[in-house]
Amino acid sequence: MNLNRVLTLNEFIIERQSEFPYAKGELSRLLSHIGIASKIVHREVNKAGLVDILGEIGEMNVQGEIQKKLDVFADEQFISALMASGECCGIASEENQDIITFDGELAKDGKYIVTMDPLDGSSNIDVNVSIGTIFAIYRRLSPIGHKAKLEDFLQEGTKQVAAGYIIYGSSTMMVYTTGRGVNGFTLDPSIGEFCLSHYNIQTPQNGSIYSINEGNYIKFPEGVKRYLKYCQENDEETNRPFSSRYIGSLVADFHRNLLKGGIFLYPSTATYPKGKLRLLYECNPISYLAEQAGGKATDGRGRRILDIKPDSLHQRVPFYVGSRQMVERAEDLIIQYEKEINGK
Ligand code: AHM
Ligand code: MG
Fold first, then answer.
1. What are the CA-CA distances from residue 66 to residues 54, 60, 128 (Å)?
2. Is 4 among the domain residues?
3. pLDDT the model gives residue 344
4. Fewest C-beta in 10 Å: which of 152, 166, 181, 204?
């Protein structure tokens, strides 16, 4: 890979297509359309602070259009881009209770389905803090030419064909994998193109950042509380105490830890006994990326996230993801502490 010249996302996608001998360009088209939609969302995210000047959400804007909430806007953009690609026959989105199926001429022959969280980290939208889009692509199980079915969406994460995220941060980036490593592209707004900036991302095997909403401390299982104490103890050899970093936007927290090394945890809590994050469109794509970059993702009880067979669209799961050694250490300690508590 020659990094001395700028390689755009589309060029890279086409170059990579040849690595899949029977590829017909369908997945490439799908990924390109996701890239296009994310540029439109990037534009709107960048204007978010102007909403109060140009008119409140739900009110008429200067062009006489009704302003939409940004997450609804993102949802619509990705749905229409995926439909327009002609390669996707259905979508499961955090914004919609049920699956959306395309049975129009253009899309009913699509081989793929997509699960997505169009704008994750919604509590950060109004305060100019990083947010993201997460997506996963699967081959459909139901026959081509018919409507997509629920079973197409309830596949294990190991069946993902591609997954990625877009982070709308100080720069906008798209990071994705098709199962041959992870690559990151930074949007150059002056030319309107995503350019390859992070080739073959490998996450550090160990790190010194832990990311968790510590405000929930009292609601955490005992093992997690003890693990947090471990993170805060002084020990030069293991670089402790670790630094605590938590944005409250999974994409941004994961992205930082992916590059720097760290662990992100969203365990079960008294409020969310099954965890808060959603398996299909948050945990699975992030886990696929983590593993492809050399990291690890589990439910904190030794179960690999990608092996979980989903039983519903909006299923939640406890989530532990990041640098391999940190995730393994956290799991060992949590399981050990809980055994001690239970006297086993
Ligand atoms: P959302 O999909 O409603 O935005 O919620 C998902 C977000 C994640 O991005 C983030 O990791 C988590 O929820 C933060 O939750 P909390 O505010 O409970 O810490
Ligand atoms: Mg979300």
1. 11, 4, 22
2. no
3. 62
4. 181
pLDDT at 80 over 80: yes
**C-alpha 129 – ligand 2 centre gap (Å):** 15
pLDDT at residue 78 tops 60? yes
Provide the pLDDT for residue 57: 57
| Residue closest by Cα to atom 4 of ligand 1 | 121
Question: Ligand 1: does its nearest atom lie under 6 Å from the Cβ of 276?
Answer: yes
Q: Count the domains in the chain.
A: 2
- In this predicted structure, the answer to whether residue 335 has a pLDDT above a threshold of 70 is yes
Q: By residue range, what is the domain housing residue 281? A: 209-343
What is each CA distance from 166 to 146, 172, 195, 255, 300, in whole angstroms?
30, 7, 13, 10, 26
- Which stretches within 156-281 are classed as H helix? 222-232, 250-260
Dig out the tokens for 261 from the structure.
């090394």
Q: Residue 1: what pLDDT?
A: 57
